[in-house]
Amino acid sequence: MGYDTFNGFAGDYNASDVLIQAQIMSERGLVDAGYTQFILDDFNLEAQRNATGYIVANQTRFPNGMPALSKQMNALGVQLAAYSDLGYKTCGGFPGSWGHELQDLETWYSWGMTYLKLDHCYFPQDNITQENIYGTYTPMANAIAEFAARTNVTFIFSLCEWGLEQPWVWGKQLGQSWRIDNDVKPWWSSIATVITQASYQYWATDFYGHNDMDILEVGNTNGIGNPPGNLTYEESKSHFTAWALLKSPLIIGTDLTKVSNETFTILGNRDLIKINQDPNVGTSITPFRWGNNSFKVGNPNYPAVYWPNNPASPAQYWSGNSSYGVVIMILNTANQAQNMSFALAESWLLKAGRQYEVYDMWAHRTVGTAVRSWSVTLPAHGVSALLLNDAGAEPAWLNGTCANQYFCSAPNGSLIYPNAFS
Ligand code: GAL
């Protein structure tokens, strides 16, 4: 969890912008909530390395240098984190780490950093790398291992190759997170597209590593953000809920000097953060029903007639495990309000014959008891995030019925069907 300068500032930030963000994060309880890494994304270096090959912090924007800024950040409970590129140049055109991996790790460490986001622009041509994308990430992974062997300090390694070569398959061999998509944007179609993409890679996330759904856009509304955002309050809640429950890194990406109280409420939702940071369960929630058609879960390989091959329509019904109960996410991907409901037994985590206490992770209170099903009316692009806990056997009036009616039978073999309660 942390902050990244890119979605809020793109290339235009300096030491005092950075410090103010950290001060606000500290004052508004976000540091306490767990946002402690501060990634100085692209555009913070001088254009050239120095005579001995070291990267140099931009002297105009960081006039007192990185170690001094790092100390000020540490005093607020925040640690600076590095951004670089595995190639010759960063995406913004500043020095990349190709051939300088260990040297750059030394520099970042001397700047108080132990976390690295590594981009994939300007990589060398094939006869030089003789590698695929996986292979072009190995020099830095090896340098991190060598640096750790020398110093006992292991950098957290965040891969950023935009999901081009299935990093969800191999990323965990090299680092702790891997971007699964192109740069997220502060509008709903982009958020929905990332959720759709993540709905096919949820299985890759566990304690060893995480699908990185990209820097949060929460706060980037009413023209705030770079590019200017237009997320509604409901969309921002849905966005944060999905990122938290799919166990993406939670990295703030907005200028906190400009945002409203709503933004702090969303970013500081401790109920969702505690699921994201669950010490016992590392897995993501998974879809149990797509929502827009009869398929339980969509498959992009099916013809559109079976699956609305529309990235703006991610799965709407999700469930997962946690230390605190069964997690349910219901997402209204429609452009208007709708009543949404599911039968408990649709999720592999909820048992037939039991009823469940329902806790709402946005209302922060228990909202009822679910018997057989649960319904909620959600606004356009709205979300419901629930924790369900076993509340005993179903009421006696349901005895002799079946939630899963297919081949449920009485002891004498007579099928219990149809059944009004499934
Ligand atoms: C992109 C990356 C962004 C940001 C940007 C900086 O490649 O996906 O997250 O780091 O480069 O130029």
UniProtKB/TrEMBL annotation:
Protein's GO biological process: carbohydrate metabolic process
Similarity comment: family membership: Belongs to the glycosyl hydrolase 27 family.
Molecular function GO terms recorded: alpha-galactosidase activity
Domain annotation Alpha galactosidase C-terminal: ranges: 314-388
E.C. designation(s): 3.2.1.22
CDD domains: GH27
Keywords: Disulfide bond, Glycosidase, Hydrolase, Signal
Entry protein name: Alpha-galactosidase
Annotated source species: Baudoinia panamericana (strain UAMH 10762) (Angels' share fungus)
UniProt keyword Cell division, yes or no: no
Cross-referenced Gene3D superfamilies: Aldolase class I (3.20.20.70), Golgi alpha-mannosidase II (2.60.40.1180)
Pfam families: Melibiase_2, Melibiase_C
Reactions catalysed according to its record: Hydrolysis of terminal, non-reducing alpha-D-galactose residues in alpha-D-galactosides, including galactose oligosaccharides, galactomannans and galactolipids
